[in-house]
Amino acid sequence: MYAILQTVHSFWAYFVLLLLLVATGNALLGRAQNKDFATRDLRISLFGLIFSHIQLLIGIILYFVSPWFQQWSQGIGAVMKDPTSRLYLVEHPTTNILAIILITMGWSMHKRQNQDVKKFSRIGIFYGLGLILLLSRIPWQSWLG
Ligand code: HEM
């Protein structure tokens, strides 16, 4: 169970980051060029939303089955003192949950706008901020190393 989830979470991360990058770039470009918000733009943003929500669900289950979770038995002080346990058990989950909240807010706010330029900016700003947060707390060394 753990091995499968870890592999899927690690692999799915490529799709999530790539889709969010494309969705953010597409929205900022659409905003800058004053384009119409077309079905294609809706689809790109929706895919970014769905893929990141799936990653969130996988991450939450992985959290409890990962060997890292055992570290909590050492106490909160020990977890916080060790930079790697802190990253896996505290920083990565909280920052990424916050990032997904921002992305979800961007999606719902874009739907309430009537002007295309505003739709693009809600997606561009909120997806962009979410992406920056995600990138800031990826365990890069174990992922790509
Ligand atoms: C939604 C955006 C997320 C992305 C893009 C993401 C990405 C990643 C990546 C790239 C790794 C490293 C995998 C490896 O070393 O091969 C990782 C590990 C991990 N993630 Fe996430 N993650 C996300 C959300 C979450 C959430 C919300 C949680 C928990 C609530 C979580 C829990 C974990 C855990 C526990 C590990 C370590 C697994 C282990 O090596 O035992 N992730 N994540």
Features:
145 residues, elongated, binds protoporphyrin IX containing FE
Written overview of the protein:
This protein is mainly α. The chain has one domain (2-144). The protein is 82% helix and 0% strand. It is built from 6 helices and no strands. Helix 1 runs antiparallel to helix 2.
- Give the terminus-to-terminus CA distance: 23 Å
Residue stretches low in confidence (pLDDT < 50, at least 5 long) are: none
Number of strands: 0
Which structural class do you get from the secondary structure elements? mainly alpha
Mean pLDDT: 97
Q: In percent, how helical is the residue content?
A: over 70%
- Count of helices? 6
Share of β-strand residues:
under 5%
Largest sheet: none
> What is the H-and-E element order?
HHHHHH
Principal-axis shape equals elongated
Bound compounds: protoporphyrin IX containing FE
Rg, Å, rounded = 17 Å
Count of structural domains: 1
